[in-house]
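Tokens for chain A. Residues wanted.
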């Protein structure tokens, strides 16, 4: 980045970033790690489909679902596929946020590469995607069908500086905070607790833990799912 800006020192590059919003956004986009895929940790998405979402729908008529740090949108689109299977797409609002405006642009187009699609069955690929071919597009890429894509609302957001969304019933923040300091993690998880309605659920990544979740007010009814008390208790929940 410094070579492209034709500067030799970090101080000089810093001054450019302060003065040029476009360069600053390019810098942010270059630093963000956009590794995502459909149905990452498939067994947890199976649990989401079989248990978590039906429990939420038993308590709420409509759900507001937020994918925080959504990257290319593969995670939010995975939830949309699950909801379509449950015939519940008309009962949800699906929101995805990320600091990287470039990746949000791709998410809004529903374009996915083979490495993001690897966990999908042939039947899901046929039902929810159309193959994409063209110059500069990797063979095996596909685009989410318009009827599903139009259900997904993507917005730019800095998780550590911008206010969190509100009145959420399910928040997914998976494999995002592993890059944060412990102080930043604690702040973000407390923000998520406030963003959830009573009875709402936070769904985190398969390698992550919230060590002091009790102090924040969460219950943990099952691994990687954290429950905000106030609604009907989930089966198997404990303090």
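Reply:
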């Amino acid at each position: 980045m410094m070579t492209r800006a034709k500067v030799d020192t970090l101080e000089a590059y810093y001054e450019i970033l302060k003065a040029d919003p476009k360069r600053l956004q390019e810098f942010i986009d270059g630093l963000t790690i956009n590794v995502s895929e459909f149905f990452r940790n498939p067994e947890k998405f199976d649990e989401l489909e079989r248990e978590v979402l039906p429990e939420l729908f038993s308590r709420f008529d409509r759900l507001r679902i937020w994918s925080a740090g959504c990257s290319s949108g593969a995670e939010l689109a995975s939830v949309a596929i699950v909801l379509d299977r449950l015939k519940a797409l008309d009962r949800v609002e699906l929101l995805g946020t990320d600091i990287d405006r470039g990746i949000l642009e791709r998410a809004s187009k529903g374009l996915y590469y083979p490495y993001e699609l690897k966990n999908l069955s042939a039947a899901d690929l046929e039902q929810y995607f159309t193959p994409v071919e063209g110059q500069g597009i990797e063979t095996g890429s596909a685009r989410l069908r318009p009827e599903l894509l139009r259900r997904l609302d993507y917005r730019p957001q800095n998780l550590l500086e911008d206010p969190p969304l509100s009145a959420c019933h399910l928040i997914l923040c998976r494999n995002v905070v592993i890059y944060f300091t412990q102080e930043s993690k604690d702040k973000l998880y407390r923000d998520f607790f406030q963003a959830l309605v009573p009875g709402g659920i936070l769904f985190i990544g398969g390698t992550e833990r919230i060590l002091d979740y009790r102090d924040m007010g969460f219950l943990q009814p099952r691994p990687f799912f954290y429950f905000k008390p106030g609604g009907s208790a989930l089966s198997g929940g404990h303090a």
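The longest helix spans residues 42-59. Residues 233-239 have pLDDT under 50 and may be disordered.
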